[in-house]
Amino acid sequence: MKKKSIGVNAFLNSIRNILNIIFPLITFPYVSRVLQVNGIGKYNFSQSVISYFVLIAELGIMPYAIREGARYRDNQEQITNFSSQIFSINIISTVIAYILLFFCLFLFKNLKNYILCILIFSLQIFFTTLGTEWIYSIYEDYAYITFRSIIFQIISIILLFIFVRNKGDYLNYALITVFSSVGANLLNFFNARKYCVIRFTTHIEWNKHLKPILLIFASLVTATIYINSDITLLGIIKNDYIVGLYSVSSKIYSIIKTLLTSVYIVTVPRLSLYLGKGKKDNYLQLLSSVTINLLLLILPAMIGLFMLSRNIILILSGKSYLAGTTSLQILCFALIFAMLSGDLYECVLIPSRREKYILIGATVSSTVNLILNIILIPLWGQNAAALSTVVAEFITCLIDGYFSKDLISNIVKSKKLLKNIIQSLIGCIGIIVMCILCDAYINSLVLKTIFSVLFSVIIYVIILLIEKNEVVMYLFGKLKNKF
Asked: Residue 227 and residue 249: Cα distance in Å, rounded?
């Protein structure tokens, strides 16, 4: 099979993630005004209920399927057999998720007012399974995923403005949300036939698949609890105002994380393929390249976000949220640990079949995060939640790094990595200078922020060019050849 360009895949995945951020920013102001507080409340609550059952149905299959499937993708018979087994396990977990959902709807009477909306959202459980998106990741077909995503998001926006016109239309909004997912996943299922024919089968190698899938699932559940515990505890210990402040900070932080994740997530199938075929040198070379590229982006993103935290909060949320600036600036320091631990998780531990160590890291960091939140939130509110996130991400990075040390030791000790970090840090000084100058000489908040970002990117690239950074020199060489 012809190998896809990892650079192109990373770009396409970044575009998809950016659009997944931009489209809600376009639609939410309209929807929140039309549906008003009660309608939005019913929509969000119903969606949050279903998210737990989607997690059960997914069962940690996505990372496992990508890792193992990448090893079989060049053999039609093996990939067909493997995919059918994984799909069948996913169908079974989906049935279990539905049984649990209906049991909860029957048991908890306070869900009665939300039943119709929850049932509409529940279609996502089945169609997410039917979508078999892991097939496209195995074959690195990010062009199809990106194009499909854009088409259905555009259709959904058009339907939104047609059918969501008053405060009672929250069910229409739910149907449109589900339509986007259902349509995309139906196309996925039929289009997947160009790679392999997926069928339901009872011949499943449970001993081979179940343990790693459940270990990954346990890690995902632990991580979900860890992610949600900050806001939950802020709500219990403090109040809605503090929750609101932290929600904005954590949302901005999550957006940056999502964009940076695009850099390494597309390499997972290729890394798994190399390890599966015993090509360790190719694996280490690609891992080193991904890590260096990631660091060259993390450091300026972290510094830039820190310098522009106040401006970003003012633009996105207004003056009433300015007290969340400090918590966002604290979260900036979590960014480097979160991205490096993500790199280790997706690019080292998952491909090398070390999911049990992922669970250890997730459990320890979640426990520390919970304890720190309970102790510190009464004292420092949303800033304590941000600080506990930094500590938890650092611990996760440390533990994942420890269990990856045999594979990453040469990369960590290499002069090439150190050289790139130093060059990036020098470039970050230029970002700080540009942000200070724009703040001093430009009055308009929006223009100040735009020019700060624009000039920061330019000065950062110029400094790396002056330093003859290998990555930037290579990219400019490629551009020069094209033009």
From this structure: 13
**How far apart, in whole angstroms, are the C-alpha atoms of residue 60 and residue 62?**
6
Instruction: Record the tokens describing residue 339, joined without a space.
Output: 């991205």
Q: What is the pLDDT of residues 168-220, one digit of tens each?
A: 888 998 899 888 778 888 888 888 888 888 999 999 999 999 999 999 898 88
Question: Could you tell me which residues come within 8 angstroms of residue 377 by beta carbon, excluding any fewer than 6 positions away?
Answer: 233, 234, 237, 238, 384, 385
The burial class, CB within 10 Å (0-12 / 13-18 / 19+), for 43 is buried
Nearest to 412 by CA among 323, 284, 230: 284
CA distance 441 to 76: 62
Q: Are the beta carbons of 321 and 245 closer than 8 angstroms?
A: yes
What angle (nearest 5°) sits at the alpha carbon of residue 249, between those of residues 247 and 253?
115
**Residue positions counted in the chain:** 483
pTM, whole model, 2 decimals? 0.79
| Residue 17 amino acid letter | N
Residue type, 482: K
By the 10 Å C-beta count (0-12 exposed, 13-18 middle, 19+ buried), 13 is classed as buried
- 156's tokens: 């959904």
Q: How many CB atoms lie within 10 A of CB 69?
A: 25
Listed residue (435, 440, 428, 475) closest to 455, CA to CA: 435
Q: How far apart are CA 369 and CA 385, in angstroms?
A: 8
Indicate whether 11 pLDDT > 80: no
Please give the structure tokens belonging to residue 27.
């639609």
- CA-closest candidate to residue 61, choices 137, 165, 175: 137
Q: Is 185 exposed, middle or buried (0-12, 13-18, 19+ CB in 10 A)?
A: buried
Neighbours of 478 (CB within 10 A): 10
Could you give the percent of the chain with pLDDT greater than 90? 44
Note whether 362 and 396 are within 8 A (CB).
yes
b/e for 279-303, b at 16 or more Cβ within 10 A? Answer: eeeebbebbbbbbbbbbbbbbbbbb
Give the CA angle between residues 142, 143, 149 to the nearest 5°.
85
Task: For residue 286, give the nearest of 312, 305, 267, 260 by alpha carbon.
Answer: 267
